[in-house]
Amino acid sequence: MATINWYKFSSPTVFYPLAGRLIPWFAAAAALLTLVGLYIGFFVAPTDYQQGEAYRIIFIHVPAAWMSMFIYVVMAVYAGLGLILNTRLSSMMAAALAPTGALFTFIALWTGAFWGKPMWGAWWVWDARLTSELILLFLYIGFMSLYAAIDEPRRAARASGLLALVGVVNVPIIYFSVRWWNTLHQGASISFTSAPTMAATMVTAMLIMALAFWTYTIAVVLARVRCEILERERHSEWVTEMLDSGE
Amino acid sequence: MSEFFAMGGYGFYVWGAYGVTALLLAAEVIAVVRRRRSLLVRLGRMKRMVTEVQVEDETKA
């Protein structure tokens, strides 16, 4: 049986060139999936009988909201690994994920406002779903500020890592808020336990856009973690050698 | 065509949502690309300074 040494990939020296090779593939996949997803979303999926054309915001709103939660969990896992195993790359990954997570949280709130205004008559309501998503945005901002405020990288990683871990409790609160409380926000259109309550082409467009956002996130985060690696390891020999070789 | 952009009267909301999303994602990509470029310039400058100091040391010695 072939054994893969997974620890090898936690070394920035190995991960840096690997990430560099993966970025173009994920970027191309993101572009292609976006084109296909938007085509189906705007030209194939039918008009909603209740909401007219306004519902088409769903194709970016729901995937962005999913990403905002997924990225937070992945970030917290990396932060946790960094705290337990003390691997350098883990905290760099957590730091690289945070800005994209914050961005998708903002997009979820923004597109939600542009959907809420025509449907509910309000840009914003203090509903459990909306409020917990806003708290998620503050958690991301808190994580990034704390990381940036402490000069010593290891201490910065520890402090912000703890914050990321504590904040994880907010994610199930967001997800289940529409069930636990009587919210204005509608319930899940897709769940693991029941058939989707939307037309098949609508679901397809939404899932393809979710994949597009996933691949986009991977490409951007890999590019950002490469910057983190270069900044933190700039005095090490392998970075000097790589710069010498003209990369 | 104009019917498509009107989005059944919801054009402002649909394009307001999509437009800002596209703008923000594009801005993020540009920010990461710029960060990498300026970082490489800075590292290159740092390296040249180190080499110059080494050369000076050698000529003194």
Major β-sheet of chain B, in short?
Answer: none
* Percentage of residues in DSSP E strands of chain A: under 5%
| C-alpha Rg of chain A (nearest Å) | 20 Å
The percent range for helix content of chain B is: over 70%
Low-confidence stretches of chain B: none
* Strand-pairing-aware structural class of chain A: mainly alpha
Number of helical regions of chain A: 8
Mean pLDDT of chain A: 90
Overall pLDDT score of chain B: 89
List how many beta strands of chain A DSSP finds: 0
Instruction: Determine the fraction of residues in helical runs of chain A and give it as a percent range.
Output: over 70%
How far do the termini of chain B sit from each other?
77 Å
Rough shape of chain B? rod-shaped
The helix count of chain B comes to: 2
Shape of chain A: globular
Please outline the major beta sheet of chain A: none
Cα-atom Rg of chain B, whole angstroms? 25 Å
Report the uncertain regions of chain A: none
Order of helices and strands of chain B: HH
Describe the fold and architecture.
The complex is a heterodimer of chains A (about 250) and B (about 60). The model of chain A has no long low-confidence stretch (mean pLDDT about 90). Chain A has about 250 residues and is mostly helical. Chain A is globular and about 65 Å long. Chain A has helices spanning about 10-45, 60-85, 90-120, 130-150, 155-165, 170-180, 200-230, 235-245. Chain A is about 75% helix and about 0% strand. In chain A, helix 2 runs antiparallel to helix 3, helix 2 (about 60-85) packs across helix 5 (about 155-165) and helix 3 runs antiparallel to helix 4. Chain B has about 60 residues and is mainly α. The radius of gyration of chain B is 25 Å and the shape is rod-shaped. The model of chain B has no long low-confidence stretch (mean pLDDT about 90). The chains are: A mainly alpha (about 250), B mainly alpha (about 60).
